[in-house]
Amino acid sequence: MRIGFDEEQRLMIQAVREFAQGEIAPRAQEMDTHAMIPPEILDGMQQLGLFGVQIAPEYDGLGIDTPTYTAIIEELSRACAGVAILLSVHCSVAAYPLQTYGSEAQRRRFLPRLAAGAIGAFSLSEPNAGSDAASLKTSARREGDTYLLNGTKVFVTNGSLADLFLVMARTDPEAQPAHRGISAFLVERGTPGLEMGRQEEKMGLRASDTMEVFFSDCRVPAANRLGEEGQGFKIALRSLDNGRIGVGAQAIGIAQAALDEALRYARERQQFGRPLVHFQAIQWKLAEMATQIEAARLLVRHAAWLKDQQRPFTGQAAMAKLFASEMSTRVAHQALQIHGGYGYMKEYPVERYYRDARVTEIYEGTSEMQRLVIGRGLLG
Ligand code: COS
């Protein structure tokens, strides 16, 4: 595996860093308070080509490699983890499965739109199907050259903004095992019967929108089925493998921001007549945080590299996501501790990093599910 980036990759990452620090970071607190991402930020992302960052050039994307993509997600996340997950979901679990499993006609129809800034979403979880995703109940009944979708999806990231939803629904209720009865569909915003439910009020990651989505006799053309009937669960799991690389990168960005703030604060804050950084107890905390971040970064980049080499990456993506997310929570915890009482106040950003980090241990597969995937890999 090559570590480091060439000139072109570095320039792209630098451009995203400048945008993230110049335009996103100053508004991160406001986005957290008001639970929204201002349209100017989405416009800026569009101008940088970020919505097409991993889409192949023949479909109007930038076709950027996955390690560089992880660095981009990290830079966005350092500024605002909610903006980072908007892009990660769009790229990893919407555009990627479309590019990987879509017919040429589907790719030509949808990918240039996604590359130009139409936003993608992924709808798998249901009120009673979370970790046990194969037990989902949303149905897709074939009627002529259409399918009729009925059911409820929850925790849909980008729900209120998305133009295209990748939806997993059951086409064969009798299939054994049950996952072989699940198929994947591309559902466009505006399709009658696709309705938005409530916007979730979250502890963290508040800039990112998380919606309930209802399908009530939602008629979708058969031409919008992604892959074969019964292939939907595999498409979902493969998309999540990819998504876990993005969430790992997001977790690293949050941790890096927490470390940056802890370092800045520890240099300024004087106690017992000296800046905090002069105390070895604080230096050790900072050293531990930096080491953990670096380890997570290498795991994420390695999983990304394996994916680009067309080699199996399920286990490595699970390891990267598991380690990076738990690391991010620990690092944000220590950054808050270094801030003492001020860390608990809204005036400083560390309390936001602490809230934002926590969900990375939960979504796109909990830490327990990552351990299960890794364990199964070990057992063959
Ligand atoms: N990529 C593609 N296919 C995969 C896969 C992967 N990473 N992992 C498993 N599969 C296939 C298997 O080969 C199997 O297919 P066949 O029966 O045709 O051989 C099928 O998927 C089912 O595999 P398995 O029996 O291992 O599935 P389980 O129901 O036991 O579930 C876990 C496996 C728990 C790992 C899976 O359900 C999971 O990842 N759950 C978490 C879901 C999640 O992340 N939810 C959050 C979503 S964010 S909206």
Q: What does this protein structure show overall?
A:
- Helix 9 packs antiparallel against helix 10 (350-358).
- The mean pLDDT is 98.
- The chain folds into three domains: 7-118, Acyl-CoA dehydrogenase/oxidase, N-terminal domain (Butyryl-Coa Dehydrogenase, subunit A, domain 1); 121-229, Beta Barrel (Butyryl-CoA Dehydrogenase, subunit A, domain 2), CATH 2.40.110; 234-379, Butyryl-CoA Dehydrogenase, subunit A, domain 3 (Up-down Bundle).
- The longest helix is centred in the middle third of the chain and has 37 residues, at 232-268.
- Strand 2 (139-143) and strand 3 (146-157) form a beta hairpin.
- The protein contains eleven helices and ten strands.
- The two termini are 24 Å apart.
- The protein has a four-stranded mixed β-sheet. It has a four-stranded antiparallel β-sheet with strand order 2-3-7-6, with helices on one face.
- It is of the alpha+beta class and 380 residues long.
What is the fold's blueprint, element by element?
Layout: H1 7-24, H2 28-34, H3 39-47, H4 66-79, H5 81-101, H6 104-115, E1 120-123, E2 139-143, E3 146-157, E4 164-170, E5 182-188, E6 194-199, E7 210-221, E8 225-226, H7 232-268, E9 270-271, E10 274-275, H8 280-308, H9 314-339, H10 350-358, H11 367-379
Parallel strand pairs: 1-4
Antiparallel strand pairs: 2-3, 3-7, 4-5, 5-8, 6-7, 9-10
Helix pairs in contact: 1-4, 4-5, 4-7, 5-6, 5-7, 7-8, 7-9, 7-10, 8-9, 9-10, 9-11
Bound molecules: coenzyme a persulfide (COS).
Question: Briefly, what is this?
Answer:
The protein has 380 residues and is an alpha+beta fold. The protein has 11 helices and 10 strands. It folds into 3 domains: 112 residues, Acyl-CoA dehydrogenase/oxidase, N-terminal domain (Butyryl-Coa Dehydrogenase, subunit A, domain 1, Orthogonal Bundle); 109 residues, Beta Barrel (Butyryl-CoA Dehydrogenase, subunit A, domain 2), CATH 2.40.110; 146 residues, Butyryl-CoA Dehydrogenase, subunit A, domain 3, CATH 1.20.140.
